[in-house]
Design a protein that fits this description.
Helix 7 packs across helix 8. The protein is an alpha+beta fold. It is elongated. A hairpin with a 2-residue loop joins strand 16 and strand 17. 20% of the residues lie in helices and 26% in strands. Strands 10, 11, 12, 13, 14, 15, 16, 17 and 18 form a nine-stranded mixed sheet that branches. It folds into two domains: 154 residues, no CATH class; 199 residues, no CATH class.
Length: 361
């Protein structure tokens, strides 16, 4: 077998996924890799010689694509190699899935929910039926094509000079209306998309604490939601907030790891989720004995200044999706384990009964 030649090699904009297309004279296959370089989803794309009656898929995980059986390929005699110059990848907005296209249109789609270990490979244009190597693209092409169109439009928009500025302005102005005047403004990005800032809203006459909020998380939908629900709109876009009476620039350091976390770890944040605190020296001073954070949509049940409710940040939409602010409440390791053993609502009740404040002080 000839040594495989790489036809396409591209990272997602968030650097958490990578797609490689290889041709070895017998077959062409695509591989979706994670940030560590491990193959998550291998997808057969085409045979280039006579198809066998049967085949074994194990080689896909070693970067050795098997020939698709004759009954499962549109070209059992084999087809001509793909034009390398015509191949291109379109990453979904969430960054967890990718579409491959050539001059004939859709070649393959690897959705964010694809998981080869669970028998869920990607879709390939050349495939017939469902096999461990690929599922037929034709039956779902009409359903999935709008996502590809949306993805291309999204990245075209993001490439425009004022796109990021429009995200900042939208969130910044909403915070001014709902929380109060702005103070300092910090960049907490790590050098790759998504771009994330933190806006300080200093204490005011009727608010004796600082509110820190991310600016920019809502500019891209979070990954993996379509694994769990058909309509992801209500959960896809968030910003994070933290109320504190400590030094704002110290407390803001937590956002350097948690702000980009959904796109780096390829996951999503929702109300009631608890997230293990990543070890880093930057936020040791404000971390204390906390081992995780609890994300709360309404921290009102927890203790706070007498007669004061948390700011109501509802009402913002972005690209048609509502934006939810999740408040960060640091929790200890026993509390984190309690949330896993029971649920976050029970933990919140427990913290409220103990008089825990939602304001970090």
């Amino acid at each position: 077998m000839a040594k495989a030649r790489v036809l396409l090699d591209q990272f997602s904009p968030y650097r958490s996924r990578r797609v490689i297309v290889e041709y070895d004279s017998r077959t062409t296959a695509a591989y979706l890799l994670d940030a560590r370089g491990s193959i998550r989803v291998p997808v057969w794309l085409a045979n280039h010689e006579m198809a066998p009656e049967s085949s074994a898929p194990e080689g896909l995980y070693r970067g050795q694509a098997p020939l698709m059986p004759a009954a499962q390929t549109k070209h059992p005699q084999g087809r001509a190699p793909f034009d390398e110059s015509a191949l291109r990848a379109v990453w979904f907005e969430e960054g967890d899935g990718v579409a491959l296209l050539d001059d004939d249109g859709l070649l393959a789609i690897i959705p964010g929910w694809a998981e080869a270990d669970s028998g869920l490979p990607g879709y390939a244009r050349e495939a017939i039926g469902r096999t461990p190597y690929a599922w037929a693209l034709d039956p779902v092409a009409e359903q999935l094509w709008p996502r590809v169109v949306h993805a291309e439009a999204y990245w075209d928009w993001r490439a425009a000079p004022n796109a990021w500025r429009s995200v900042q302005r939208t969130v910044f102005n909403h915070l001014t209306r709902t929380v109060g005047p702005a103070g300092h403004y910090w960049d907490v990005s790590d050098g790759h998309a998504p771009l994330i800032r933190v806006s300080e809203r200093p204490p005011s006459g009727d608010r004796p604490y600082t509110v820190l909020s991310t600016v920019g998380m809502c500019g891209q939908r979070m990954p993996t939601l379509d694994r769990y629900m058909a309509d992801t709109s209500a959960y896809a876009r968030i910003e994070l907030a933290l109320a504190t009476t400590t030094r704002a620039h110290v407390a803001a350091r937590i956002f350097r790891w948690i702000g980009a976390f959904p796109w780096r770890a390829v996951t999503w944040f929702g109300a009631g989720h608890s997230v293990k605190w990543l070890d880093n020296p930057e936020d040791t001073a404000m971390r204390g004995n906390s081992a995780a954070v609890l994300l709360v949509a309404d921290p009102g049940p927890l203790s706070g200044p007498s007669g004061q409710l948390p700011p109501d940040t509802s009402g913002l939409t972005f690209h048609g999706d509502p934006v939810t602010w999740l408040w960060i409440v640091p929790i200890t390791r026993p509390e984190h384990l309690f949330a896993k053993e029971h649920d976050s609502a029970t933990l919140l009740d427990k913290l409220a009964a103990e008089g825990r404040s939602w304001i970090l002080g």
